[in-house]
Amino acid sequence: MYPPYPPDLNAAQKEYLLSNLKDWSIAHGLAVRPAPSYVQDDAGALATSAPVTLFPSLFPKVCFEQARSVARAYNELYSAIASDEGWLRGIVEELVEIDDFMASLWKVYLAVKEEGYAQSLALGLFRSDYMVHVDQSNTAKASVKQVEFNTIASSFGGLSSQVSGLHQHLLAIDAYPDELSSLINTSSLPESSSVPSLAKGIAKAHEAYGSSAEGLPTCVLFLVQDPERNVFDQRHLEYALNKTHGVRTFRLLFDRVLQDTKVDKNRKLIYTPPHTPSKHYEVTVVYLRAGYAPSDYTDQSHWDARLQIERSAAIKCPTVLTQLAGTKKVQQVLATPHSPHLARFLPDQQQAAAVLETFAPIYPLDKSEAGNEARRLATDPASATRYVLKPQREGGGNNIYRKAIPGFLKDLPESHWPAYILMEMIEPPAQSNTIFRNGEVQSGGVICELGIYGACLWDTGADGKRDILENFEAGYLLRTKGDQSEEGGVAAGFGAVDSPCLVDV
Amino acid sequence: MYPPYPPDLNAAQKEYLLSNLKDWSIAHGLAVRPAPSYVQDDAGALATSAPVTLFPSLFPKVCFEQARSVARAYNELYSAIASDEGWLRGIVEELVEIDDFMASLWKVYLAVKEEGYAQSLALGLFRSDYMVHVDQSNTAKASVKQVEFNTIASSFGGLSSQVSGLHQHLLAIDAYPDELSSLINTSSLPESSSVPSLAKGIAKAHEAYGSSAEGLPTCVLFLVQDPERNVFDQRHLEYALNKTHGVRTFRLLFDRVLQDTKVDKNRKLIYTPPHTPSKHYEVTVVYLRAGYAPSDYTDQSHWDARLQIERSAAIKCPTVLTQLAGTKKVQQVLATPHSPHLARFLPDQQQAAAVLETFAPIYPLDKSEAGNEARRLATDPASATRYVLKPQREGGGNNIYRKAIPGFLKDLPESHWPAYILMEMIEPPAQSNTIFRNGEVQSGGVICELGIYGACLWDTGADGKRDILENFEAGYLLRTKGDQSEEGGVAAGFGAVDSPCLVDV
């Protein structure tokens, strides 16, 4: 589908491109802390270029625009789901036996519900991830299909603006050979507004919270993990909040929530920085870059911490319900063929149709009608090659691909089958790129995943009637990984941050 | 002279300040490549925070303003010296036997002079370095005294803007304890405009050069060393040139001048980037960040390279004569008590008086009248304690301090004495700070050196009448080193970049 790309570089071209890439990335904070396997750094003072592609990957312009065009509809959809407790309860109840994590999150929700929520505003900084899908029966047709929808800790927005800046710089300084100029040029490289847009989302929530009734200074808390190698990604958002919006931010380790915050009698979340114990801040927004995965909750204190945040009057990004709305199970029930759920949450038919276009069919492996079809597709070696089997449990990993599916199911007691969903494989066009990571250069076939960020601030309303205060697209992310690895993610060391070079296909 | 400063931090305060410093510095390119002694990095992909002070060092406001107030006069002075071949010849002739380097530079000048210079414009990006001097007879009086004047490769301008940004950020996020607020506040931390101002200096020269008569694309060359750990300092200037002024820049290793450039029949300097051998650029400005020290010239090819640049029509920053104007010997003859030279180059009496105020007395150790006085001062153990003995030879190092001087001279044959100059020690006020460097934190007494950058573009004129086209102050640098080391320089590992916290004294 794509023209030959990228070109082979001779030694001088490679040296020019790489030395410029290495310097520009550090000079502009397109960086990560190095992995211990790369270099031991007890002082935490070293950094290296974030894993990054040498060239912007080719990406169909029509697909890029398709993904952007549904960003606001997705914000609408997921804010609706996150506001529908009754519906979400049904989802959770189906999973409660196979997924302790969801069950525990639900318990946090129930506890706060019993007490009554102190904050009706909710902030979503979402990211909808897509791959380009080429219809095998009509290879001229490319569209995006959704891989997943992230409602918590959507990362790399802080770096994405920088990657698009890097590739534009490399273009401007002639690091890309002239014969590429019909492909890579200023009009084919879209900027990513992810840093200013995500920061604006948080700033809008901060503003909507208002000032402290007690006259305390206010702040936004970034709830973070320790260690965090991807710290600069988060810092760029902080610096934009500080500089552009004059919003005070603090990083708080998930481990320190119980020590450093308290919920006062009016349920305000009060943060006391350890370095200024006599100063107290009222927290307007808690932005979770931790607490999204089971591994963040190693003992009960972490659940107590999550509860403390949830019951406070701070605006959560996200609330527990919003996090639950992002589970794979929700994606599955929306994307099951003939599902009635999409129309329920997105009554605008045009919007719903556009969103539906981005779904790859997903089936449950249960006793429903769709489940029966799924069993047939998954056990037949011929049809199975078009599918991937994914555990319903959150946390990723352990996917079963294509022809391995029938054998895997044969060995699995049928009572355990409902713990999996069957998803039609997205078939991305073949393409290649070169990745710079940990000081090493690797070239080969790659798969690109486009993420579109969305920011949404809504009021769940005392009357159960949702009111959307802010709803905007918030930039993009392109992540690229070698096509040999069927699991991925830049931070885990499998991929790189990238930016698209838009092409007509 | 100063109030107690900086405060002792408790563990939580230190952790807060340091973690913010480490992240902000990398996110904003306030970085260096790590020294091999710190970490081995064959791929050249690691970076670390530039050595930096945790607090902005106290600095008398009156001294800061004094140093800035003479910036334009110094530009005037040194452009005049660099335009006076006859006078400089006298200086060089005095040194030719003790300093091969100056002799070789002079030979380059003579060779081009014989052929005739192809470019009458010259660019100076200068930095005048000062320390605060407290008159021991009147300790209420603080003024700046010049340490040296740099006419070539004045470094750290690229980082200085960032350090001032760092300290302002740390102030804004409350990393400095409240009890300091009368000292550190937004009005006591001056911004450094060094990045935009130095870039503007180069851009003005680029513009003055004009377009290529042959219709070639034009560019500015940064002549650099390999390896260069302080690369981001240089890169920030490049990026400002690219972005703000739309000027194309290339880094060229001093070792590669003869391979990658040629001087055409019209003496234009033509650069052919190795990565695009079919593209030729006409060089408007050569900005030397290499070629300033004897160690850069390891064989004849380097002198051939320097000659190639000097005889070309590119604007040199600096020319050979401008580099020679920056030798210690020139500083000495200007600063010798009752010297007539300052008035010669700076006829404006008010300007000359202001510049004279910044001189610490410097004496030759020759047979002149001033030399006789110097011999007396240097050999008397009582008076020697107020002086430092410096070799006239360029390149730094091997200074003899205070009470070591008489013994040193006793062991040195008197015929070798003229190879040294005697300079009155500048007596800076005692102060302390904490430096973060190579992942380590060190606290103690420090000495601060303030550099004021100046940009000057002048036309030496066919008629020998100099015409100044641009003359402006170009930001500042504060460098701070431990007061135990009497040699210094951040890149060499002895000090840190800093920014001033201005105080009334």
TrEMBL record, chains A, B:
Q: Give the Glutathione synthase substrate-binding domain ranges.
A: 218-325
Check the record and name the Pfam families matching this protein: GSH_synth_ATP, GSH_synthase
Enzyme Commission number(s) = 6.3.2.3
Which reactions is this enzyme annotated as catalysing? gamma-L-glutamyl-L-cysteine + glycine + ATP = glutathione + ADP + phosphate + H(+)
Q: Which cofactor does it need?
A: Mg(2+)
Per UniProt, the keywords (alphabetical) are: ATP-binding, Glutathione biosynthesis, Ligase, Magnesium, Metal-binding, Nucleotide-binding
| Sequence intervals crossing the membrane | none
- Cofactor: binding comment: Binds 1 Mg(2+) ion per subunit.
Q: In which pathway does it act?
A: Sulfur metabolism; glutathione biosynthesis; glutathione from L-cysteine and L-glutamate: step 2/2
The record's comment on protein family reads:
Belongs to the eukaryotic GSH synthase family.
> In its UniProt entry, what is this protein called?
Glutathione synthetase
Q: Which organism is it from?
A: Zasmidium cellare (Wine cellar mold)
